[in-house]
Design brief:
Distance between the termini: 105 Å
Number of strands: 8
Helix content: 10-25%
Number of helices: 2
Number of domains: 2
Strand content: 25-35%
Shape: elongated
Order of helices and strands: HEEEEEEEEH
Strand order of the largest sheet: 7-1-4-3-2-6-5-8
Largest sheet: 8 strands, mixed
Length: 169
């Protein structure tokens, strides 16, 4: 009798684990959909630098996710990165919008921010955004700040006290 209860308990625990696993899979798939469903429109944008952007990166308008990056390739004509994005058509992004690669913070991930234009016509399948701003290279930015603020150009030591003409030693 004790063995039957043990097997019954193991079966119930196993069933709970299987149900919880299935629920987690569906919850994960629902969470990663990013608002762009099967009816999403595909648009592209040409960026000079796409550091930090990968397939699956969020595309946002006013901080709200409206899609995701579906492909990244190098345009052989002008050597810019061609970023393809699936966008929720319900967002009605104007066709004169611009795109910028933004960061969620100093240590956060990157995302593509769409900046709506003033057109009344929404983006259509295959539209291209030419007005873009690439990713900032933080290492170069910090390095140029350090190098530019390091000293004067005349070769004099700026840390020493200035000598006045009226004082003698």
């Amino acid at each position: 009798m004790n063995t039957a209860r043990s097997h019954y308990l193991e079966a119930v625990v196993g069933l709970i684990v299987v149900i919880a696993s299935i629920w987690l899979v569906f919850a994960f798939l629902g969470r990663t959909a990013n608002g762009a469903g099967s009816d999403a429109i595909e648009i592209s944008a040409l960026f000079p630098n796409v550091s930090g952007i990968n397939v699956g990166t969020d595309v946002r308008v006013a901080g709200m996710s409206v899609g995701q990056v579906t492909a990244i390739s190098l345009n052989p004509d002008d050597y810019q990165a061609d970023v393809r994005m699936a966008i929720d058509p319900g967002a009605n992004i104007p066709n004169d919008s611009s795109a910028a690669i933004s960061s969620e913070g100093l240590l956060g991930g990157s995302y593509i921010a769409l900046l709506p234009g003033g057109s009344l016509e929404p983006m259509q399948e295959g539209d291209v955004i030419f007005d873009t701003q690439g990713a900032l290279d933080m290492t170069s930015l910090i390095g140029s700040f350090i190098n530019d603020s390091g000293g004067s150009d005349d070769g004099l030591d700026t840390m020493s006290e200035p000598e006045s003409e009226g004082m003698t030693r």
